[in-house]
UniProtKB/TrEMBL annotation:
GO molecular function terms attached to this record: metalloendopeptidase activity
UniProt keyword Cytoplasm present: no
Residues passing through the membrane, by range: 17-37, 43-61
PANTHER family referenced in this protein's UniProt entry, alphabetically: MUREIN HYDROLASE ACTIVATOR ENVC, PEPTIDASE-RELATED
Domain of life according to the entry: Bacteria
Protein name per Swiss-Prot or TrEMBL: Secreted peptidase
UniProt region (Disordered), positions on chain: 269-288
Keywords: Membrane, Transmembrane, Transmembrane helix
Domain M23ase beta-sheet core stretches: 189-248
Keyword Membrane: yes
Length: 288
């Protein structure tokens, strides 16, 4: 059985590589056709995109079938933040919560800090086009381990970019930036991120972390409630926030999402505000 599992993971990884190679070939041909002109029919310029699109559709169908035929019980974990926050793209409203099963995001949730009504800058159509990260109360907020775990991946070298919460900036994010980041893979999508092994084949991901804020490194053992990083705005992110998810493997390229529930707190729906209790003491150990 382990061999079968390893074979499955290898096939998924190879499929992901082919998927990204197809997009690279497509964009390369488009650029060549625009600036140099190609001697063959325009269909062949667009044809490399057919393969990654087919892979995308196939992966989506497979994920939906697995979700339907092999439903997983939600795993109970702690809350990764403290204080008053709001939820976006919540699995409490729909799955896949982010519109895709890719990168293990089926049951992912986005969290933005809302310490008071109106403290978080809202979306603007025209101006300002972008904002500084420090304008958002989530930036620099501490993030906590949701269970006793082992750190299997941690990186925080990517920069925190400006917000993408105006119409022009969002269009840039969706049309240009997200496509290029998707080709770049997990680290470009998640930005600075940490992966925790919670045991029993369950892994927790904290994404879009602040550069230089990691308090852990691969191999570390962490306790539930221990601070592991700070909230940032790296990767495929529109504003400083925490992207949190559980999955069944350490590599988001090949893992499937795992549903979760929070201990002592109902998982909020889109736009719902909640207050996570501060149940930690200095040193990162949870109080009884």
């Amino acid at each position: 059985m382990p061999h079968q599992g390893g074979t499955t993971v290898s096939v998924r990884k190879a499929t992901v590589i082919v998927y990204r190679a197809g997009w690279v070939a497509f964009f390369a041909l488009v650029l060549l056709d625009l600036f140099a002109g190609l001697p063959f029919d325009r269909f062949w310029v667009w044809s490399p995109a057919l393969l990654p699109l087919a892979i995308l559709v196939g992966a989506s169908v497979r994920s939906r079938r697995m979700q339907r035929d092999n439903p997983r019980e939600a795993v109970e974990v702690g809350v990764p933040v403290r204080g008053r926050w709001s939820a976006l793209n919540s699995p409490a409203d729909r799955t896949p919560s982010h519109g895709t099963h890719g990168y293990g995001q089926t049951y992912a949730i986005d969290l933005v800090a809302e310490p008071a009504q109106g403290a978080r800058p809202g979306f603007k159509v025209l101006w300002p086009v972008v904002r500084r990260n420090r304008d958002f109360p989530a930036f620099g907020e501490p993030l906590f381990a949701v269970a006793d775990a082992t750190v299997v991946h941690a990186e925080d070298r990517q920069r925190d970019h400006l917000s993408r919460n105006s119409l022009l900036a969002v269009l840039y994010l969706l049309i240009v930036e997200a496509s290029l980041r998707d080709i770049g893979g997990v680290r470009r999508i998640f930005g600075n991120h940490v992966v925790l092994d919670l045991g029993d084949g369950v892994f927790a991901v904290y994404a879009h972390l602040r550069r230089g804020s990691l308090a852990v490194r691969p191999g570390d053992r962490v306790r539930a409630g221990q601070q592991i990083a700070q909230c940032g705005n790296s990767g495929n992110s529109s504003e400083p926030h925490l992207h949190f998810q559980l999955m069944d493997g350490p590599d988001a390229d090949t893992a499937a999402g795992v549903p979760f529930r929070w201990r002592g707190l109902e998982v909020p729906g889109n736009g719902e505000t909640f207050t996570a209790p501060d149940n930690t003491v200095p040193g990162g150990r949870p109080t009884p």
